[in-house]
Amino acid sequence: MKKILFYLMAGAILLSASYSLADNVAEMKDLSTQLSTGGVKEQDINSLQGSMKNMLQKGANKEDVKNVILQLVKLGIQGKELTTSVQETDKLLNEGKDIKTASSIVSQAVAAAHAKGLKGQALSKEIHKAIALKKAQHAKEKAEKVTAKAKEKAKEKETKK
User: Fold this and answer.
1) What is the pLDDT along the chain (161 residues), one digit of tens a residue?
2) Residue 145 domain boundaries
3) Which one, out of 17, 133, 152, 159, has a CA that is 20 to 30 A from the CA of 54?
4) Buried b (16+ CB within 10 A) or exposed e, 30-50
5) Total of domains in the chain
């Protein structure tokens, strides 16, 4: 009886995983079609597959991923620059940022670098630099909050004595 129950549960898990995989494949295909319709080159879509898949797995919805990419394309970003920008967005998601925050950070960095006339490697470096600066600012703000809380607790302890 235990064996039968085990096999039924294992089968259910495998079936669930296969449905999830099928949904993911369908979602990726639909996203690729929407990007193509939105003006993204097929070559760019192919190079973005890994990042798009990861962003979807990290909880971003298809519409958010599409908007991130189309926003960059509207700025004139394509090819390797587009791939790098989307990968940076993906990295921010991996670090715990939500898709809208990650997209905003990368889009601002791309727009600023693009406004300076940067392209290729220089654009990529500027994006990395802007993201690093944003991370440093966030870390500084977090450290300041922790320090303020620690000082507040120390004051409370002091007044209790």
Assistant:
1) 666 766 566 665 655 544 444 456 788 898 899 998 989 999 999 999 999 999 988 888 899 899 889 988 888 888 988 898 899 888 888 888 888 888 888 888 888 887 888 877 787 788 888 888 888 888 888 888 888 888 888 888 777 76
2) 2-160
3) 133
4) ebbebbeeeebeeebbebbee
5) 1
